[in-house]
Specification:
With 209 residues, the chain is an alpha/beta fold. The chain has one domain (2-207): Rossmann fold. It has helices at 12-21, 45-53, 85-94, 98-107, 115-119, 125-130, 156-159, 166-177, and strands spanning 2-5, 27-31, 58-62, 77-80, 109-113, 151-153, 181-183, 189-193, 196-200, 205-207.
């Protein structure tokens, strides 16, 4: 199962949707690699740990820059926090984690929010359009892992006033790329479980895309 969300499992609806699906799960890894500066000291880590613990999970903090990706399948749930999507994608490639993450999305539960939601999708082109300065590594290959064809735009409501012509530029991207972008506010996410797709909004959970 793959979960793409805006800022973790902070939404009541999203948390409830996952609790029903993760009843047999016991362990979780919280992967902090996307924050190349603060890592385990990222200020979201305590909140994300609490959200996972509220699902009955024992949580370990994990970093692909320091620990082998081959350890991740030992967890029932793996959640990647936000940060820099370009750094995260580079770290995934450097650590040889691609195959491990594909297996996790198929056989376990893989959660990615913000930066990771971009990295787990088909491309980083959308975030590069808004914030090219984040690509400080100078990556020319902007492809994501392609775990799903769903493209999300996290923090939507928050960024409407932070970026000039934010919605207009998103619509232009959709037209140019021939795709539909799923706009997510903080607390929202999409659960992709085989052919089953459930969008969990802050007010409700509804099927479909």
């Amino acid at each position: 199962m793959l979960v793409l969300c805006s800022n973790g499992l902070s939404g009541i609806s999203l948390h409830a949707c996952l609790k029903a699906r993760l009843s047999g799960c016991r362990t979780a890894a919280l992967v902090v690699t996307a924050d190349h500066q603060y890592k385990k000291d990222n200020y979201h880590v305590p909140r994300c740990r609490q959200e996972l613990e509220a699902l009955g999970l024992r949580v370990d903090v994990f970093d692909l820059d320091e620990e082998p990706a081959e350890r991740l399948p030992g967890y029932d749930v793996v959640e990647f926090i936000g940060g820099n999507p370009f750094y995260l994608m580079d770290a995934i490639r450097r650590s040889g984690a691609e195959a491990v993450l594909r297996e996790l999305a198929l056989r376990k539960t893989l959660i990615g929010w913000s930066a990771a939601a971009f990295a787990f999708g088909p491309t980083l082109e959308l975030v590069h359009m808004y914030s090219p300065e984040m690509n400080f590594l100078g990556m020319s290959d902007l492809s994501g892992l392609g775990l799903t064809d769903v493209q999300v735009l996290p923090h939507y409501g928050k960024f409407l006033t932070r970026f000039e012509r934010f919605e207009e530029r998103c619509r232009a991207y959709e037209a140019r790329m021939g795709v539909q972008v799923l706009r997510l506010d903080d607390g929202e996410g999409i659960i992709i479980d085989g052919e089953d797709r459930v969008i969990c909004r802050n007010a409700e959970a509804k099927p479909g895309l």
